[in-house]
Write a structure and sequence with these properties.
The chain is 42% helix and 16% strand. The protein is an alpha/beta fold and 217 residues long.
Length: 217
């Protein structure tokens, strides 16, 4: 099982703060059945330091005892607009064609029209756009048609496993359940910031597989 969204790199964002914490997360990931990880530090203020993030990746890789790690980024839309679309190739998963895009949790439907323009541009550049944790977005919580529209555009939606405990903002479980019921998710990921999140990943995968939900790891 691939975990394609986590904050396991040491000392670069609001996830692991040290190599020891990163290795504790890696141990928890193994225990949850994870067999490979895409490391996705935040591309948003105040965290983004591209070179430091690559240095942290190489440090973790050197201590991971051969565990399969890839480099990626969780790219905040506003930060991408600030950096410019020419940064897309540097922020995709390991130089590949997957691109993890984070939208604003407070965005209304009007803002989603701007997001759609960016998504179409990324797709035109050859990227498969993955929308991080849509269950957190107010526009999706208010109207699931927003999520349906993203899927119709060709986006893949990624659930963050902490929804099973209410989510980071405390109101994600109900919209996530609805998205699962409509088979709108393509991925579930830990979005781990500390080891406990891997227990939630294991629980979410077990519960929603039992319920018949289908998603890719």
């Amino acid at each position: 099982m691939r975990d394609m969204h986590c904050h396991i790199l040491p000392g670069v964002d609001d996830g692991a703060q040290s190599l020891d914490e990163s290795l504790a997360m890696l141990e928890a990931a193994r225990a949850a059945g994870v067999t490979s990880i895409v490391c996705t530090p935040h591309v948003r203020d105040p965290y983004f330091d591209y070179d430091a993030m690559w240095d942290a990746f190489e440090l973790l890789q050197a201590h991971a005892d051969g565990f399969p790690l890839r480099m990626g980024f969780e790219v905040n839309h506003a930060k991408l607009m600030e950096l410019g679309m020419e940064w897309a190739s540097r922020l995709a998963f390991d130089g590949g064609r997957e691109f993890l895009l984070e939208l604003s949790s407070r965005a209304d439907e009007l803002m989603f029209h701007e997001y759609e323009r960016t998504i179409f541009e990324l797709q035109g550049m050859g990227y498969s756009v993955i929308i991080a944790h849509p269950e957190r977005y107010r526009a999706v919580q208010n109207d699931i048609e927003v999520a349906r529209r993203l899927v119709k555009m060709g986006c893949k939606l990624q659930a963050s496993a902490d929804f099973i405990a209410g989510g980071r903002l405390g109101r994600e479980k109900k919209p996530a359940k609805r998205l699962f019921e409509e088979n709108l998710y393509s991925f579930i990921a830990s979005d781990a910031h500390y080891p406990e999140h891997y227990r939630l990943l294991a629980k979410a995968r077990e519960e929603y597989t039992v319920r018949g939900a289908h998603f890719k790891a």
